[in-house]
Each structure stands twice: as structure tokens, then as C-alpha cells.
Amino acid sequence: MSSQFNYQEHEIANNADIEDNKPSKSRFLFLLFFFGFFIFCWSGCYKLYEHRFQNNEDIKVPDNTLYEPKYK
Fold first, then answer.
1. Which of 3, 40, 50, 71 is deepest in the core (most CB within 10 A)?
2. In 1-72, where do the E strands start and end?
3. How far apart are CA 14 and CA 21, in angstroms?
4. CA–CA gap between residue 18 and residue 25 (Å, rounded)
5. Greatest distance between any 2 Cα atoms in the chain
6. How far is CA 56 from the centre of its chain?
7. pLDDT tens by residue, 47-58
8. Which of 63-69's residues contact partners 24+ apart within 8 Å by CB, and which partners?
9. Where is pLDDT greater, at 58 or 37?
10. 8 Å CB contact between 58 and 52
11. Euclidean distance between CA atoms 16 and 70, whole angstroms
12. Is 46 within 8 Å of 40 (Cβ atoms)?
């Protein structure tokens, strides 16, 4: 009366699953953080470049607002 039950789960290893491979998961999260931070910094620098100060020498400044004002 010996009956053996061989219930074995046959799972196929999925190499693309990052939950199964911890070094791959940490590498993925590091690269995600690194490129996210890089794009954030690059876009900030680009916005600062787009809205930079542009000197216009042709602006007429009233004489009473100069550093040494000239009154009439």
C-alpha cells in the first residue's frame, strides 16, 4: 500500500523577471535612477540656457534712475 505522490511544480525560469534575479534588479534600479537624474539635470540646464539673460544695449534708461541721477 505504498502510494507515492509526485507533485512537482514544473516552473520555467524566466530570465527577464527582475524579481528572480536580485543583482539584475539592483542594476536596473540604479540605471533607472542614474538616467532619471541625468535627464532631470540636463533639462534644468537647458531651461536655464533658454531663459538666460540677454544684454540689450539699446535700452533707454531715464536719467533720474541712474546710479548718479541727473535732475532737471
1. 40
2. none
3. 10
4. 5
5. 121
6. 34
7. 999 999 888 788
8. none
9. 37
10. no
11. 76
12. no
Grid cell digits, residue 18: 527582475
Q: Cα-Cα-Cα-Cα dihedral of 41, 26, 28, 31, to 10°?
A: 20
| Cα 41 from Cα 34, distance rounded (Å) | 11
Q: 27 and 34 in contact (C-beta within 8 Å)?
A: no
CB 20 within 8 A of CB 14: yes
Q: The whole model's pTM is what?
A: 0.51
CA distances from 40 to 2, 3, 28, 32, 33 (A): 67, 64, 18, 12, 10
Count Cβ neighbours within 10 Å for each residue of 13-33 and write b for 16 or more, e otherwise: eeeeeeeeeeeeeeeeeeeee
